[in-house]
Amino acid sequence: MTKTTLLTQASLAAIALTAFQPTVSAQENTEDEAAVLSTVFVTARGREESLQDIPESIIALDSADLEARGIVDIEGVVNQTPNFFVRETFRAGVTFFTIRGISTGQQGWAPITYSVDGVKSATVDSINQGALFDVERVEVLKGPQGGLYGAGAIAGAINVITKKPTNEFAGQAVASYAEGGDKILRGSISGPIVEDKVLFRLSGYVQDKDGLVETIQGEEVDFEEQATIKGRLLLLPSDTFSIDLRASYSDIEAGAAAQSRFDSIDQVNTFNDDLLPSRGIIGFENREFTDLSAKIDWDLPFGTLTSTTGYLDLQQDLFGSVSWTAEPALGEAPVLGLFGPLFGANALPATDPLAAMTPFDQIQDLFDDFEIFTQDIRLVSNSDQPLRWLVGAEFIQREANQGLGVGFLLGPQGDVPLLLLNRADEKDDDIWGLFAQLQYDLTDKLELTVSGRYDENEFSTVQIDGATGTVVPQLDPNGAAVNELSETDSAFQPKVTLAYDVNDDFKLYGTYSRGFRFGFFNTGNLTQQETTDNYEIGFRSTLADGALSLNGSAFYIDYSDQQVTSVIATPPFRVTTNIPETEITGLELDFNWDASDQVQINGSLGYIDAERSGGGDVPVTPEWTANLGGQITQPITSKMDFIGRADWRYQGEHISVDGAGNVFDIDAANLIDLRLGVQSGNWKLVGFAKNLADEQTALDPGSLGAFFIRAYTDPRQLGVELSLDF
Question: How far apart are CA 586 and CA 608, in angstroms?
């Protein structure tokens, strides 16, 4: 991507935003009508505070922001955040996050702590749960947050706060239709069962999508069917005591293993009809979530005691090709797959005895089942005092059963499986942590925040032969054959922040923090724990008489034992290693501007310079990321408004490295979304375009011997959406 092309793309986005500007006469633009940013309250530091008062690199998107920007999944949130990058690869559960140069190791822990209403996901597989709906607010914190959020928060944390039950009956229904036969219906209803005492909320989401990406053979590979139902019950027996019960269930069937195959590393950035996916069998993934939680709040004279209990059962399985191509037609030469040539259905007559052993295709058959229990208990002091404190303890128990089978489909019809590798890993994690935080107003302008947490994880793995169910011995660090491998990781994670209020509208802060992430077993291979030492300075400001917020930060990260996962061409087809030392420096800026009552503009810019020990860039870490967005509400008549929203996301050039040492140079990408429509009273009709410029970029490319594969971004999608509030 040349600088000229980047400038052109940015100019187009700026023109689109400028076109939204309404004509306002000098008489109308009076001081009395000057726009002022609304105050956003968040709970990122364990208590309710104004967003602009928090000395952190943090953004927050409320329900209005999510709706206006058309955000329906976690990828949409990431794409609004500088120095944050997400890649969905061969299945939804394997969604890799990179934040400030810190990424995800396959079968390992995410670089962020992801929680919904205070309940941690405790596995990267459960972060991408499909639709993100009926949400009140999403908070994204960058930089280590281990002091409050635990070992997984080495690079940040995401808090999802869902909408609470209401004391008055209310609801919403939203229906949309888009290209690829993408039909979505979602809605919610809320109200009292016993007024002021027992409140409920019920919401649901249904999607039926044929798909946007077709194979050369004309079959869609990105189809999806999803059904999700959520329920919440809020019990208020007194003014000082509450019980919040939450349950959700999701059933998802979607296309998977949909990567395209290419022959030369130079084709990684080439997208044309010749490089469309080719398939003999279409891959699919089934995912089933059951999520339960109970939160109890008890207001005491000196603070609030909170207990949050969570349970998650996640079952997912995948079946797809590992040849990433179709069998040859009659008379064609064999096609080379991962395990050798494919002859296909027409290689031999069905009556030939050898036909039963003819390789038709090569397959992968996976399953990943998780059962997770979490318990958090904390005591938070009242906020109206110079010394504010928080203490707590947490326990997480995670049981995982992950299976991998690869091999052939044999016979003229390709209906006889022969697995060359059929193995399962049974894993256990027992995690506990103790944490505390103190906030003290040294003066009226100077605040000191100190937090610390000790986390420990005892984890183990047992390998099982998938065909017989017997234990497969593994080699321990001393070379002895054992039935179980186990390890214990632990660390103390301190954080110190000093914040100074220059005036009511400008805050400076400086932070030191220690980041930590547990190690893990990747199909028997132990990946070591990793740590970071982080130094950050920043500011948060409000300008233009309250109409503009401008925030910025600069940071340095000393990164030890960075976890990196790569694809390889031999079992177990993935390898995770540790990079001894990495240095990361970066900058971030973001702004929100209410230019008038009718026009809002937001933007952000992120810069990363990351270098490994021995030289070389850090994989999947774009040097530059940027966002620019704007929206307008313009009256058409006395009862109807025109509404519009445009968003531009830039992800800079970066590299991806596979297990064979191949370095893929990935081009920059410009992603533009557009929403235009009308609203009147309680209804809204919007037309939308996702990835308007139809720009595609490679995600997670890798070498598999004689060929390469890659996932890639979704193509352009046009659609229409109708919503009704009642």
Answer: 4
